[in-house]
Structures
1.
Amino acid sequence: MTKKKALLLDLVREKPVHLTAEQIFLLAKERSPGISMATVYNNLGALSHEGLIRRVHIDGQADRYDRTVEPHEHFICDECGEIRDIFFHGFTEELAKRLGERISSYELNVRGVCAACQRS
Amino acid sequence: MTKKKALLLDLVREKPVHLTAEQIFLLAKERSPGISMATVYNNLGALSHEGLIRRVHIDGQADRYDRTVEPHEHFICDECGEIRDIFFHGFTEELAKRLGERISSYELNVRGVCAACQRS
DNA sequence: GAATGAATTTAGAATGATTCTAATTTTTGA
DNA sequence: TCAAAAATTAGAATCATTCTAAATTCATTC
């Protein structure tokens, strides 16, 4: 765990929002001005493989990085674009039961209009 | 509905597999040799918007096109890469109930080892 | 059947996120 | 202190997809 890797991990962990590599790069530059995009990608990739953060793919967008590594789902607001974590307790087991196969991972992205946007 | 658009729709409908734009392009050339990649993308995009086919995004792969437009899920084999349709009856309603929000769409990709690969 | 305008198709350039490469810098530990 | 290993870097490469602007096809009207 190098200094820059630790910095990137901190940045992902600091906020509950799901940042893109670009956003993380800009934040990282404030604390480590010479850092390069390659280092950001290298380390975010490594951290994801090590299971310390989680890479989130959302159709048509740059990948995002999530501090929450436990299995969970995502809700994406059609209006404001906000990405919110959802936790469906026991979902993996339910999937396994319904499928009858061993599951290594899954990805569930739900879209709709969030409560805040529905009000306005 | 132009001839080429109809051809592309046919190609997607012909086989149960989920083809990429590239694969569809190669098949289309057999029946319409001068067809261009741009036409393939234009028409597959249009057909998807019209709801006649469905565009499927799988992390790290080129998009695929699915003849099945009803809401359903996908199982991707970690070993052979096969993409299989899953039908979880009432899943949209279950999601809506658990979330308490109106859902416009969702995407569920499940990964694991398919039965065929487990045997070998 | 020719003329007109709209829609489709086309080749190739542009895009943009990500990965790769090869060189440089930093770190480690003998 | 030195050598080897690891991390970092700039920039090139990749690749699916979209965009652009020109060419072609199509439908409609006279």
2.
Amino acid sequence: MELSERKKKILQCVVDDYIETAVPVSSKSLTERHLPNISSATVRNELSALEELGYLTQLHTSSGRVPSAEAYKLYVSDLMIKDKLSEKEIDYIKKIFLEKADNLEEVIKNTTKVISELTSYTSVGVATPDVDEKINIIKFFRYKIDTALVLIVTERRLLKDNYISVPEGMTDEQLSEAESVLSRLLSGKSFEEVCNIKDDINDEFSGYKNIFLNVVEALKVYMTVKESDVVMEGQDKILDNPEYADISKIKNFLSVVTKKDKVMTLLAGDGRDIKINVKIGTDGYEEIPKDCSLVTATYSANGTKIGTYGVIGPIRMDYQKVVAVLENVGKILESILTNR
Amino acid sequence: MELSERKKKILQCVVDDYIETAVPVSSKSLTERHLPNISSATVRNELSALEELGYLTQLHTSSGRVPSAEAYKLYVSDLMIKDKLSEKEIDYIKKIFLEKADNLEEVIKNTTKVISELTSYTSVGVATPDVDEKINIIKFFRYKIDTALVLIVTERRLLKDNYISVPEGMTDEQLSEAESVLSRLLSGKSFEEVCNIKDDINDEFSGYKNIFLNVVEALKVYMTVKESDVVMEGQDKILDNPEYADISKIKNFLSVVTKKDKVMTLLAGDGRDIKINVKIGTDGYEEIPKDCSLVTATYSANGTKIGTYGVIGPIRMDYQKVVAVLENVGKILESILTNR
DNA sequence: GTTAGCACTCAAAACGATTGACTGCTAATT
DNA sequence: AATTAGCAGTCAATCGTTTTGAGTGCTAAC
């Protein structure tokens, strides 16, 4: 059922005020601050109707009203007036990204830093591995008798965090032979394609099957989300919100937001094509603390998803600001990464 | 001035009890729990003498006594009965370290994890770069027209996080020539020695001076403590302590302990040869939150310092446990790293 | 040097009364 | 039929008072 325009307007004002003040909002304050042309009694009637519909709740009979999870969702999707960032804020984002854009990890870290600074909430993010990333060069560097470092150059970056074990008795010549065979076989292929290569594809390569399998293992590690792909910033920001005056709430919040594995599950499985995503803890998401809201944006460059970043904070969150920041950061980040 | 045996005993009991209960300790509870042979009035006299000496304080006339920073220092150095870890706990430490000991970064991360788990406090640590580390092999891998990855194999590890920019027009042959010249020049030398090499040391090398200077820059980065050398665990553990019921205290604590740069200054400049080090916030250490105590241990292997690890928590901290854990972790860690 | 005993102190808990910001409802008004 | 004024009723929050009891310090006796 569609709400009347007036109900929408009133609901929007309630959410606005509650986000601003953290205090249950009363009919009187609504008429005084936003609706000078109707009486508080009328507003009371509307409020009680909105309560009936599940958008508002009351702590007790004589208290003001507080928005429900339903109301916040409607607010973000329909009611909220979109915020614009100031020149200064946009310049700040640009500055941060441009001063250190060489290293992808730095960029990721900076993304959460900027988001947390500008929103004043805890920010979380995860860089999504790109299974379509294509291999250009593959190189082995033996540095111990039985271990070699695998260097993989792709279109976008240099992967250098995996090791393979070298079979006993393999000479340096054989290893560099393996290198050139594999290079020829794999270059131009995406990670996913490499992982799907069937055994019996190529005669000349058959001698290096073990090495090949090791490399596939290494690629698989790159293709999965790992704790090292997760970043978090500003965990202490939650304490600035008056509803977090309760130690047990803080503890609950921190026990999620200081642990990379938990943040990883928090951000896992976010829809691919949805840009801004709002999840509210009371709404049945197991991983999100009950009194929290998680707002995320999924960023892409050159048509592939590069990561999910967002903000976790009280349900009563400044969604206008958060959405504006996430969108602007996304725009700038995507433009930087697309230009490569 | 030396305390009488009885004063020492009483002070020890006060600290023990206060650490256990977090409640100011009274003369009555002391006689009941620990000193059945003297009357509470006698204890009261002794307590008031200890207060005179600066070891105890009272919140108000009719409250029990609380240890001062002075008292804790004496407690740790003199009064405390050293704790032993249980078999189970020692096995736990061994298990953690043995299951993933291949990668130095993992080991470092595990060190703080174990310390935090076993003590139930926030743990912090920093891996100290070793300026005496000796270079075995140096290798360049050009992966962009103007950039090469520098791989440096030392006695202990493979460094692979630095890039040098390659002069325009330099061919692959010239780069590999530079590689072998530098390899000959640098292998067997320590980082520090390399940084002190004077310009005019070698004719054959003079053509690659720029590359050499780039490599020195890279080594200097390895030789300084960086944020990536800092690890932290269990930042939420502080909330289990009843004296942290106050949001502003929590905020203060978290604002230090969620930021790598701050933890870095916290751990900076710890004496080289001191094993266990106790610093109490009220004692004039700028970086430590006023109501906190920082207990650190400095670990070495093969005669060189490998890092400083410890625990940060309330002044009223279980020093017996903490010291025991730090010592045991140290023993096991040092034995693992020395065996390399 | 110890100790029993008592007066005194003071934070914390318990209690009760008051306040005031709300709502819901009813009856009058538009 | 929708709006509104007016009033009774609700309830958390605040404030002041009292009570309680754990604790000390001091004195006089042992």
3.
Amino acid sequence: MERLFYQISENEKEKLFRFLETNILTFPKNTIMLSNTKDKIIGIILKGYVQIIRTDYQGNRTIIEELEEGDIFGTILSSLDSDECEAITKENTKVLIIDYNSILSYQNTKYKYYNQFIKNLLEITTSKIEEKNERIEILTKKTIRDKLLEYFNIYAKKHGSKIIYLPFSYTNLADYIAVDRSAMSRELSYLKEEGFIETKGRKITLLYK
Amino acid sequence: MERLFYQISENEKEKLFRFLETNILTFPKNTIMLSNTKDKIIGIILKGYVQIIRTDYQGNRTIIEELEEGDIFGTILSSLDSDECEAITKENTKVLIIDYNSILSYQNTKYKYYNQFIKNLLEITTSKIEEKNERIEILTKKTIRDKLLEYFNIYAKKHGSKIIYLPFSYTNLADYIAVDRSAMSRELSYLKEEGFIETKGRKITLLYK
DNA sequence: TCCAAAAAGTTGCAATTGCAACAAAATATT
DNA sequence: AATATTTTGTTGCAATTGCAACTTTTTGGA
């Protein structure tokens, strides 16, 4: 939210909404959020909590994304478009929907903040690409050990520190690096035994290099 | 190239280059293309052929991207930024470099084609996200068989056909889905035996569903 | 504070995979 | 057309992993 309207005041934001095709929708807890149109949209969670769940052809369900207040989603940002995905509200949720085509077809460029908005959108999309590249870098590693180390290295470089505070549970980490949780747990034990890392809860300390 | 300057004529393109901070660089065959600045850039291959190669901490080298005439790359689009990456020209190569900050800091929005340019850039970045999502969908599958089937399904859906013409070699497919080539070859044999697919060279026919 | 639920750790075992080392086939190159 | 190079197919074997089943620990409500 903040990023999408970076350097745009509340006032200007309201104006922007009038230029663009926007909609505010409210969904009760545990509803399936469906886009009524087939158009591309950008959604912003104004309030609430949503899970994006994918069911594959074998019936396996996985949470592929979790969205909180301020998070941005949509046909162009996530894989919401694929038929196998559902967005389910886990709380009362209020969502702002912006029609993507109305962003791109908007011709009246005299309105200054329109450009700022587009720039912000561009920043968000490029940082999404970076995120995806990081995950791909991890997923292409062949062993669980190498996946973990790649994850650690990326985190450490980004934060400039050898101490990692996992932003989610180990269960979620296993999903993120796409390996079996118990097998990952085993590998973490080996890494500890061999003196590469130390852990205390979700705090991991890298002892190598 | 076409996409970045979609609906922008050659004339307007030239004008645009004068507004933005652009540079045309030429590299001989087998040179390492280095960005002299640390700034974010967008590059466009005007002529030639480039490979982006990553060397990880174990010394394994993998081609992570191949760029031809018209392709767009850059700090914001690929993982060129990471230290482990090199871009090596495989032919005489001419590259147009656009400073990313000059795109975003450009204030004079009176110039109509500037907006078209930004919109095109946005289209390119969002379609990159889609590409990455597809690959992640494949990479998160646990077995080689499931990875292959996911690849086939995505392709088939996109082309609306049960006949697949691999856009690259089986060796490259193995890299793309991040498995051992010979193990993939074995799995393809099983799929043939079991009557799920038929292959003739790089043409694969899906016999299921 | 107690209880239920979720998360995390452990381990045996079978299935899958990577690796290595080839041979055969297809492509490029001279 | 002959040769070199790359791609593809095959297979044995050891290493890695997923799966299942279970225990222990942690977390979050009532």
4.
Amino acid sequence: MLDERKKRVLQAIVEEYIQTAEPVSSNAIMNCEGLECSSATIRNEMAELEKMGYLEKPHTSAGRVPSAKGYRYYVDELLQEDKITLEEIKYISEKLENKVNQIEEITQIASSTISEITHYTTVAIGPSTNEQIIENIKFVLLNSRMMMAVILTDTGLVKETIIKFDEDITENQVQTLSYMFNNKLKGQPITKIDKPLEKYLVDEMSYSVNLIKPIIEQMKKVVEEESIHLEGATKLLELPEFNSLEVAKNFVNILDEKELMADMLNTGFAQDINVYIGEENEKEELKDFSIVTFKHRIGNKDLGTIGIIGPKRMDYAKVISVMKYISKKLNGNDNNKSE
Amino acid sequence: MLDERKKRVLQAIVEEYIQTAEPVSSNAIMNCEGLECSSATIRNEMAELEKMGYLEKPHTSAGRVPSAKGYRYYVDELLQEDKITLEEIKYISEKLENKVNQIEEITQIASSTISEITHYTTVAIGPSTNEQIIENIKFVLLNSRMMMAVILTDTGLVKETIIKFDEDITENQVQTLSYMFNNKLKGQPITKIDKPLEKYLVDEMSYSVNLIKPIIEQMKKVVEEESIHLEGATKLLELPEFNSLEVAKNFVNILDEKELMADMLNTGFAQDINVYIGEENEKEELKDFSIVTFKHRIGNKDLGTIGIIGPKRMDYAKVISVMKYISKKLNGNDNNKSE
DNA sequence: TTTAGCACTCATATATGTTGATTGCTAATT
DNA sequence: AATTAGCAATCAACATATATGAGTGCTAAA
């Protein structure tokens, strides 16, 4: 357990470092609130905090920098969560309330709003489709060789795809297909669109392979697609820690790897808001970054995940308060009178 | 007009510089084909070429670098276009023939193929929708307050969007709407989906505003959306000229600006393949890059534009031959026996 | 327990020297 | 008249030395 003054020192250092990105010296925080003592005293405290693992020194004659443990302590114990302004609350409300009709888009809008306010990069991923239940399937004949399939799920998600055939099809065929597919799939999880179904329809129901195969394949493909959405990809490049070309390149490459992003968003959801600081990230590539994520859900329905990715010295107070607010708004339990 | 040896020298310098990204010295090209003379002679030629504006010197004791004028001369007069290998031809054919069914996707596939082969960044933009003619409109009732609209155009383009209503709608309403819209819009340019139409339907045909307004607005929106597709965005970052953080950041920021990209692809199409070298680009931001574009069209139907963006010292020979080949393949006049 | 004082450390900045690639010119050669 | 060898001059790039100063850690006094 840290005594009161050590907490103060740690907090001051974390906050100063978040702001300046420069190692913090004993002088720099001497005049901070609640620290009315000399730099020498602070140096002593700093030395102890370092021994306990909360701080690090880049080199002997530099100031101190928070360690992962330091950030963690700060986030868990010291953070003050009221760093969201009234203007921001207003802005968020506007953005979200305007467009509540597009269920797929809402996560993206939330994600871009977060990026705008925090100036970090955000990643949004749609709901993991394979947990969803098919509510309805529509087939629409477009022309003699093209059909559109529309899949509706219980979460309100809509996936649509165009299917092309090598032979002509008729409105009648589409009708019976539509009936058949709905009959087999309504109320079933979306993963039931698979090879066995194709086999069943061809072998047992004696539909033509040329007809069924493209339908199943295309629907399967579109259903499995994960839609990842990046916002503010270049924002981090403005930060001083990205002044090394090495790091900047690295970051851009990370963002390019969609799978990594998806993984990142899909790990562990113990709390409503999850914070991973530097080395706490499972992926090696992310160990220089901090990540804050939350799931957008209504009831127990997963509607997507939003993550923010920033430097280890990200402004946790702001990020977390913004995330909490948006999460509350999205997930419906908003009893906040913002206007 | 340049004499034969000057041409040789210019060509050697351009090609060497494209390969190495280092200023080219008189020694370096002494043993090039058709240049059996001493470095001193080459130096004399180089000095003259510089005076004429084809070459530049970064500083006194460095080699020469081609100027924009130099590249231009090279592209117009000296370039040999057979820099596409058999493997590449095979690869392209495979990629393109595999997926000729998705009309929207084809431009993107072509674009990603080009990026893979050339190792530059490519940008693809869909056909400019507002020239297209509506062939058919389908409305599909999804549930009591959601409808999907599908628009088919003469180029085979399909746009679809979900429309939500504030009041319940019936299958019957959708039927008459569908009839009405098709009646008014079939054979019309896509730009006819506009405010006057809304006004007409509401005022003259006495449809409910609550019904018509969301339909028109949403369809208008989806039709106007420009779909820009980037491929290999990080590839250029590997090139030595992007070793300056300044340039790298600048590049990433450029790619982020969708409008700029769209503009870039939509300027001037005098030739089938257009080459803009450095300062020749209208946009200030692009003056350190070269851009090669071509339009994907069948007959006089515009199906999209593909552009490649690379350093001024891009491998024009390769890029142009790949682009020409793909353009030929896409645009149908392929009388090349590749297999 | 706190703090003033001071020697020590070390990244950063600046100046200075060295190297080597490359040019441009001149004079000799073809 | 055109080509080429030879050589001084140039200058970025690298390496090395020197100075600066911000910041610490320790000691001893308050």
